[in-house]
Amino acid sequence: MAVDLAHVKPFEICSIRPPTENDSLTFRLTRNCYWRHCAFCPVYKFGARFSKRPIEDVKEDIRSAKRIDDLLFQEGLVGGFFHGDAYEGLSRLLDRIRRAEGSLTFCEEEPEETPEDLDPRLRWFLSWFKDKPRLEDSLSHVLSWRLGSAKTCFMGDADAFILKPAFITEAIDHIKGHFPSIQRFTVYGRTKTAARARTLGELRAFRNAGLDRVHLGLESGSDAVLKFMRKGVTKEEHIEGGLKVNESGLSCSVYVMPGLGGVGWSEVHARETAEVITRISPDYVRIRSLQIFPQTPLHKAAQRGEFTEASEEQVVKEIRILVENTDTETEIVSDSATNLLSINGRLPQAKAAMIQEIDEYLALPEREKRLFSLNSRLQSFIGQYGGLTEDMACALHPFLKDGRLDVSQASATEVEKITSLIRSKLMP
Question: Mind listing the domains of the chain with CATH numbers?
Fold first, then answer.
């Protein structure tokens, strides 16, 4: 039966998800984060408050996504022999839906208001995260999923372990019923919830429901750092929660944040984080170097002199300590634009190669380190957004020669200024 354009409506997608889930179909089981205290995190400090969504609302979103998916097939944008840019075709389809009689106006709602005095960098960052769904976002989301593998699904937002296994089971069953091609389901979780709020039997029930992988934000293995950053979890709770996740049969992917200890806790942060990873033995360790965002508690602490940000070189040294002292089989993944170096490999097999790559950077003269940083950040931004912002283009314009960027004659101050501008707009 043909899809009625007037009944196509948006559904809530997860703006915040792991890079491995960029092409996944996503559904929100909860909204935002119930903790909201982490000093370094800019994501959940504005917008809607945390809430658990009723299962019927989630099911309605799944049906809306299925209606969009059917429409994409009906229009020949996927699954056929569409000639041309699928996204251009999607834009024309969106115009037709908006003109359709009785078209729902929900998709045109204004975004959540943010404070008028919001820092421009933070405003840029938050502009990419939408609490309220728009039809164009939902259409593009399903199209990206179809043009990708069409085999993965991420369910957000921040900590799915606060939900009962029966809720997760019902949600996954409904998704499978509408999207049978999906083969992997993943969520974010908190180690403390796994350690203190869920039994091993409940975690196994998540696995039996069809959940495959959980992404856990360790950030640090140091109690001093965890306390200062208001993470709300201890080193031992990290370990207990991670071990229970492993024992349940769920694949465990953890995030660590080099630089989070600042200058004062730099080495202890790296060494104790390596210890936690060694004891948990997760499937993946994902590196997210610290970015201090304006108007976060950490930014304010730095302004008061209570926290001194580590240099890029010090952060790289922390990663070296982390790699060198992690004594378990795991996959190190550097898939964040915040990282200066792309350090990837399987431990212990690739340990020597990763350390060598780090040492080669550390051995560079200071000038070459600055140029390396600029080029690395520039490529990260272009890879993330596909091009430059107007202010970046203006900053780089004096160094364009015959259409090529040449900063060999730029002063150290100019290189640092441009690098800082680019870093200020990189997403974690």
Answer: 1-106+135-153 (no CATH), 190-363 (3.20.20.70), 366-423 (no CATH)
